[in-house]
Write a structure and sequence with these properties.
The chain has about 375 residues and is of the alpha/beta class. Helix content is about 30%, strand content about 20%. The chain folds into 2 domains: about 1-210, TIM Barrel (Alpha-Beta Barrel); about 225-380, Rossmann fold, CATH 3.40.50.
């Protein structure tokens, strides 16, 4: 194995596109044919491959390996560790730059990224995750991404990476456990099947979260509820939902609902605050753009006719604003002491609210003010 460390990005591209041509799931031409005078078109055996979008279009993808270095000695693989070939690796920024430049030139509509195993499966998956994270959030690439899961990588890394990709797959390698032992020493059937099951389950779950049938993108009946802050007021037996997504409270609600049959609990990423035990920050922002709920249950630090729902944390208010935007209905859970008060940041107006549930401490005078303003007000004692 010959490791080259001082290669240009063009030299790396030549090596790692050629090494990627054997990776299945996308189809390249497999032949090299230059254009000729009087003829139209040419063919390249590596670099650009083709896939099909959900609407049937054939799209071009930049098909590369992150690295052709590998710790495994699979007899059928050209990148096996015992093969005497030049080795190199991209950096996450190099992959991002290549993808952006190819896209700007209209060469491609997306990226296909696979890899050999560099050091460990988790280390390789971390590098791939970093690449996709930068591509989506720093380089602002909104095109198609197909990524390969690395056998043996942790579930957490596979899941994080999957949220950034449009398609995720894993190579089956060999059909039998005996063949795997003989031809791919070091790999096990479980290392391959475990992430394959995870990807399969993730596809099914994503379809439910987005509210679409996988094949035809038809809406199917499913109650999905989002909870922010005051969601801890809801008792599990009152929900009866197929899917439940707590967006605020990080402690009691999630733990109370995680074992309830028929309910899937998902927590957005972020910083857990010491005061309110809420999750806030920009980490959960991307997830909220991908998920649509039937009902959002939200709380607030203040509630007034003029300013609607307000909160003291601008970060938490921003997440709640996105939660309200992605939900068909919004129900506010506000105790009577929050009425006629205003905090720092507004995140929902009266027009955004389908119902406000409060306790019986609310005075008749205040109740009439909000009902006259068009608020559908429900006292807790009536529920």
């Amino acid at each position: 194995m010959i490791i080259q460390e001082n290669l240009t990005i063009q030299e790396k591209l030549k090596i790692l596109t050629d090494a990627a041509k054997y990776d299945v799931a996308c189809t390249s031409s497999g032949v090299q044919r230059r254009g000729k005078k009087g003829h139209l078109g040419n063919s390249s055996e590596a670099g650009i491959c083709h896939s099909f979008a959900a609407d049937g279009r054939c799209i071009s993808l930049l098909k590369i390996l992150f690295t052709n270095q590998c710790i495994y000695d699979c007899k059928y693989c050209v990148n096996r560790c015992t093969n005497d070939t030049v080795r190199t690796a991209f950096t996450p920024d190099e992959v991002c730059q290549l993808t952006m430049e190819f896209y700007r030139r209209n060469y491609i509509e997306g990226l296909f990224l696979s890899s050999g195993i560099l050091s460990t499966a988790d280390h390789t998956m971390e590098l791939i995750y970093e690449t996709l994270y930068k591509l989506r959030n720093i380089y602002c690439f909104n095109g198609y991404i197909h990524v390969k899961s690395i056998p043996g990588a942790s579930r957490e890394l596979v899941e994080k990476t999957g949220f950034l990709a449009d398609r995720m797959s894993i190579n089956l390698e060999l059909p039998t456990a005996a063949g795997l032992r003989e031809l791919a020493p070091g790999k096990t059937r479980e290392k391959i099947l475990a992430p394959m099951r995870q990807v399969q389950q993730g596809i099914a779950l994503s379809g439910r979260l987005l509210g679409y049938d996988r094949g035809y993108r038809k809406m199917f009946p499913s109650d999905r509820a989002g909870f922010a802050g005051g969601a801890s007021l809801i008792q599990p037996e009152l929900t009866g939902k197929d899917l439940l997504m707590p967006f605020g409270k990080a402690d009691s609600l999630a733990l109370a609902l995680k074992d309830v049959p028929g309910i899937t609990v998902i927590l957005t990423g972020g910083i857990v605050t010491s005061v309110s035990s809420s999750i806030e920050g920009l980490l959960g922002e991307d997830l909220l753009t991908k998920i649509h709920t039937d009902i959002a249950f939200v709380s607030a630090r203040g509630f007034s006719v003029e300013n609607g729902l307000t909160d003291f944390s601008i970060y938490e208010a921003d997440l709640k604003r996105r939660c309200v935007k992605s939900s068909a209905k919004t129900i506010a859970l506000i105790d009577h002491t929050k009425f006629n008060t205003t905090s720092i940041s507004s995140y929902a107006s009266l027009d955004d609210l389908n119902m406000v549930i409060t306790d019986f401490g609310l005075s008749e005078h205040t109740k009439s003010i909000y009902e006259n303003a068009g608020v559908n007000l429900v006292l807790a004692k009536e529920v």
